[in-house]
Write a structure and sequence with these properties.
With 578 residues, this protein is of the alpha/beta class. It contains 17 helices and 14 strands. A 6-stranded mixed sheet has the order 6-5-4-3-2-13. Strands 7-8-9-10-11-12 form a 6-stranded mixed sheet, with helices on one face. Strands 1-14 form a two-stranded antiparallel ribbon. Helix 7 crosses helix 17.
Length: 578
């Protein structure tokens, strides 16, 4: 066998496809253009606009199916994108989609105006990859579009969630996060399973549109049957009622509303910090007065930026220039909670008496420092009823260019361009704490956007015999000034709840704080960019989740198949066997 350059398309492949299409009523006719009268550029860009409209801020979720319908008609059309250069239109549509979706990147800091097109440009490679791989499976290897399209879409989303630490916002099923009936299948394969069903249904519609006679009837029937099965499964899962006879654990979620600002002077920043403390103190006083039976108070990420240092065996081990400041931070942190949510000059006698009566644990986000290794962490820590620091979780999944810069330890000068002076270090293990027998596991900010990370944490804790009953997400979305990022982040938390069948609590600066049950229902939700207090009466969800056991293996298998098809198609473009 010898490989020689291909001069022109051969006929064997097209004959095989034509023969396969005749035998398989769910395939498209390879000799018929299904987008006749419509330019590929129009269909591609229209599909991108419709898909963007399905996500927040518009949130018109049925348009996700319409956008997929436009795109899948192009995938099925053997005459569309006949030249490789035509895929530039797909990339352009993808780039415009991500620029419109990710505009919130520009809001925290001026450097975001450089990161915005860079991030969008990188994410824009995934839609062309979907088009190319799906067309290869359909037109080169004769795979029905009903099979090829959902497999390739899942592969695209799995790669996006993993490459370069992963980007989990704006996954396809997030368009439907406010409609629990439609997303219950996420507990089988994670969000990837719901994506599979959505693309399968859209492919059935595209196949029915382009077909005639018996083929059209079968395609439409398959699509309608899939919708019926998904809705039936959703209704069954939503009918669950917890059999637990134990009373719920009341938790107070505190949502402040302080936008993150980097242009402040040191003096202004100190005043802003005091104002933030007062806001959280006053909101906590309100929560204690309204719900005196609360068992836990939860503040957002960074609500307590001056936390105590990670305890050291000897204070004199600290560097000379850090001894007093770190010691003061530790002492002030414990004192801060012991006297009742506030440093002495901030509190009047009434507030003191209100908070000192029946003090309860506080879970909050703050800054952690390891003096031995000189490492800084984004952490969640808790003060118990005695005001002692009794629990700490160190964030495991850091945000690239938000909490660290790749290779920044070798080129520290790059941090001069960033809104932070040095990179943070990551934690190594998930943690659990218990309140009246109910186990809570915290995660911080964008960790909840990475589905496989939270699933892995739950699996690790389960293997250690300490499976959590409740997930708690501490977030500071004050970076994004009330933009669509708040909605996209909330959607991720909803899917974590459904995927793992774990009630999820969210305490988020500027919103959206929320109480989400194990079926993804938003039982409580805070306002956008306004302070609020929420009460969550938390029950354990005793259901099992297939996704905890299966993990991403089905999605990985689809990714392998898609990559092989893509690589094989690219190889056959340039070589033929002789």
């Amino acid at each position: 066998m010898q490989l020689v350059p291909k001069q022109e398309p051969g006929n064997q492949s097209s004959k095989f496809i034509h023969h396969f299409a005749k035998r398989n009523i769910l395939s498209s006719d390879p000799n018929q253009s299904v987008t006749q009268g419509t330019s590929p550029m129009f269909s591609t860009i229209a599909g991108g606009i419709l898909l963007w409209s399905a996500f927040p801020p518009l949130g018109l979720w049925p348009l996700a199916f319409a956008g997929l319908f436009f795109w899948l008609r192009l995938v099925a059309d053997p005459k569309a994108f006949a030249r490789p250069k035509s895929f530039r239109v797909v990339w352009l549509s993808s780039f415009l989609f991500w620029m419109a979706t990710n505009y919130f990147v520009t809001l925290p800091h001026w450097a975001g105006f450089f990161g915005w097109p860079a991030l969008s440009g990188f994410l824009s490679i995934y839609f062309p990859f979907f088009f190319a791989s799906c067309r290869a499976m359909v037109h080169r290897f004769g795979v029905p579009i009903l099979v090829a399209a959902p497999i390739c879409w899942v592969a695209m989303e799995w790669l996006r969630a993993h490459v370069l630490t992963g980007y989990g916002l704006a996954m396809l099923p997030h368009t439907m996060y406010r409609y629990p009936l439609l997303i219950q299948t996420a507990d089988i394969m994670g969000g990837y399973g719901t994506s599979f069903l959505m693309v399968f249904i859209a492919a059935a519609a595209a196949s029915a549109w382009q077909s005639t006679g018996k083929r059209r009837i079968v395609s439409a029937s398959v699509g309608l049957a899939t919708i019926g099965l998904a809705l039936s499964y959703g209704a069954w899962r939503l009918s669950y009622v917890s059999p637990s006879t134990e009373p719920p654990i009341p938790v107070a979620l505190i949502q402040g509303s302080r936008d993150v600002r980097f242009e402040l002077s040191t003096e202004q920043a100190e005043r802003e910090l005091l104002t933030q403390f007062r806001e959280y103190r006053d909101l906590t006083v309100q929560a204690r007065q309204r719900w005196p039976d609360s068992k836990l108070i939860v503040w957002p990420e960074s609500a307590f930026p001056q936390s105590d240092a990670i305890p050291q065996p000897d204070e004199h081990q600290l560097p000379a220039d850090k001894r007093s400041s770190i010691f003061d931070m530790r002492q002030s942190a414990q004192y801060y909670w012991k006297i009742g949510i506030g440093v002495a000059p901030m509190l009047d006698d009434t507030a003191n008496q209100t908070l000192l009566t029946g003090t309860i644990p506080l879970l909050t986000g703050g800054h952690g420092y390891d003096a031995v290794r000189d490492d800084e962490f984004n952490s969640a820590f808790m003060f118990d009823r005695a005001g002692e620091d009794c629990f700490r979780y160190l964030k495991m999944h850091l945000v690239m260019f938000g909490e660290y810069v790749p290779l920044g330890e070798f080129f520290p000068s790059v941090y001069r361009l960033m809104p932070f002076s040095r990179g943070l270090s990551s934690g190594t293990e998930p943690k659990v704490f218990a309140i009246d027998g109910l186990r809570f596991s915290p995660n911080i900010c964008f960790e909840s956007t990475v589905g496989h990370l939270i699933r892995r944490q739950v699996q690790q804790l389960k293997s250690a015999g300490n499976e959590p009953d409740v997930l708690v997400n501490l977030s500071n979305d004050g970076w994004f000034y009330g933009s669509n990022c708040l909605d996209l982040h909330l959607a991720c938390n909803v899917f974590r709840a459904v995927e793992l069948r774990k009630p999820t609590l969210v305490a988020a600066n500027t919103g959206f704080s929320a109480h989400i049950d194990g079926s993804g229902r938003l039982l409580q939700i805070g306002p956008r960019r306004q302070p609020a207090i929420l009460r969550a009466d938390v029950h354990p969800d005793l259901r099992t989740s297939p996704y905890i056991r299966l993990g991403d293996w089905p999605a990985i298998g689809m990714t392998v198949v898609t990559m092989l098809a893509f690589l094989a198609s690219q190889r056959s473009r340039f070589f033929v066997r002789t």
